[in-house]
Design goal:
With 148 residues, this protein is an alpha+beta fold. It is 47% helix and 14% strand. It has a three-stranded antiparallel β-sheet with strand order 1-2-3, covered by helices on one side.
């Protein structure tokens, strides 16, 4: 008769519990990554919406495209355009987390007719990162259209 081995079921249970724990930790990490990506996608969509909005308004009033620049530039003869741009700027600042150094800009080149919208934002909790390109993690959305 063979002697019985005691404790084998306990070792089996510990191994299976360890594998299960590793799987749960991986699932949690994947969920956190998906939530962060969802937040980034939301802000990118908001940025594209606001860029398309100011480009659309300036396209309708292309003769006064210089009035839709942010910050306000010279050469504007229609106060309505600048008022629309100022309101747009307030709404963008409320929708995208940014600071004064990375303020939204709308630039019109009268020679080429290009209107360029640049929006930058940084998500809350994103730490400063040292990379070979820059020292911060700022997200950018740059949209250019020709109004001529």
């Amino acid at each position: 008769m063979k002697p019985r081995v005691q404790g084998f079921a306990l070792i089996e249970a510990l191994v299976s519990l360890t594998l299960f724990s590793v799987g749960i930790v991986g699932l949690c990490a994947a969920t956190l990554l998906a939530a962060k990506q969802n937040s980034q996608t939301r802000y990118r969509t908001v940025a594209q919406y606001y860029a398309a909005e100011i480009i659309g308004v300036a396209s309708v009033d292309a003769a006064n495209a210089a009035c839709y620049t942010v910050p306000a530039g010279g050469g504007c003869t229609a106060g309505t355009g600048q008022a629309i741009a100022t309101d747009w700027l307030k709404r963008v600042k409320g929708a995208l987390p940014s600071d004064d150094q990375h303020a939204p800009s709308v630039v019109y080149d009268a020679i080429t007719g290009n209107l360029t919208v640049t929006l930058q934002w940084k998500l809350a909790g994103e730490a400063q990162e040292k990379t070979y390109l820059s020292l911060t993690t700022w997200h950018n959305a740059v949209t250019t259209t020709n109004l001529k």
